[in-house]
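Incident log, support desk, overnight shift.

02:14 A customer reports that sequence design results differ from what the structure should imply. Their input is reproduced verbatim below. On-call engineer (initials T.W.) acknowledged and began investigating.
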């Protein structure tokens, strides 16, 4: 049975000795505060010494794996089989025990040192299932990424340098010196916090429509490329394909393709969505 990351709601690492949550990753909105769930599970597992591995609620299940110094808690929508989720939970548990077990035994209250481990969790449970055939493009301004520290920050910067609105995720994977699972985890982080989005690569038969883009952006492109910009924007009426527009205009086709991609990249043109 395959794992469906869209079912995941919340993951937390909880120190066994004191019951503190050392790292929590929210995936989806929940009607109940997930910290309350974590507190409840902690009380049941740690203080009642009850060997519970699953707690079932009406809208979700809580899967628990317990190690020597930490427990891993996963809140997930009801799934046909827990096996693929538990397999990954156990890998997370083994990994955190190996990397941070000594720190957890001599815990001094500072949970910030564990934030980098978010990438290890996202390699097992990414925020989103990323389609590697899509083209990522940067958003102008996203939200604060709470896990953007240390090596995670360095890897995000490395990945962002490859995002140019033209390469697919698969092509970036071939170019960047990072494992594929890390790349997908980092992309899911950027997408979750609205620093990037994804689009299909343009094809000859795509239909484009004009969009409201900032005047300063449009005027800058017009200053660089002149009359072809206005001619092109006037032709993309939501009916003509890219091929038809290019054939209508008296300019070099390769130059027009470059300009089309540029206008899509800055948001002045967009692919027409199916109604």
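02:41 Re-run completed on a clean worker. Output:
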């Amino acid at each position: 049975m395959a794992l469906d990351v869209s079912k995941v709601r919340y993951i937390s690492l909880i120190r066994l000795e004191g019951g503190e949550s050392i790292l929590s990753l929210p995936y989806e909105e929940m009607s109940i505060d997930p910290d309350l769930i974590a507190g409840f599970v902690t009380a049941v597992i740690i203080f009642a010494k009850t060997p519970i591995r699953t707690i079932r609620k009406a809208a979700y299940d809580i899967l628990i794996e317990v190690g020597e110094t930490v427990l891993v808690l996963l809140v997930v929508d009801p799934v046909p089989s827990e096996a693929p989720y538990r397999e990954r939970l156990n890998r997370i548990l083994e990994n955190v025990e190996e990397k941070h077990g000594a720190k957890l035994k001599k815990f001094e209250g500072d949970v910030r040192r564990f934030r980098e481990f978010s990438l290890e969790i996202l390699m097992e449970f990414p925020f989103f299932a990323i389609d590697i055939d899509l083209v990522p493009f940067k958003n102008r301004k996203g939200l604060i990424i709470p896990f953007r520290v240390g090596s995670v920050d360095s890897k995000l910067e490395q990945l962002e340098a490859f995002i140019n609105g033209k390469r697919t995720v698969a092509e970036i994977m071939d170019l960047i010196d990072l494992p594929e699972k890390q790349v997908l985890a980092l992309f899911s982080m950027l997408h979750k916090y609205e620093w990037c989005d994804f689009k299909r690569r343009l094809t000859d038969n795509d239909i484009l429509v004009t969009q409201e883009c900032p005047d300063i952006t449009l005027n800058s492109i017009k200053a660089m490329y002149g009359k072809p910009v206005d001619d092109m924007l006037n032709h993309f009426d939501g009916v003509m394909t890219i091929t038809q527009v290019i054939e209508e205009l008296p300019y070099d086709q390769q130059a027009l393709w470059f300009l089309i991609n540029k206008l899509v990249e800055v948001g002045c043109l967009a692919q027409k969505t199916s109604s």
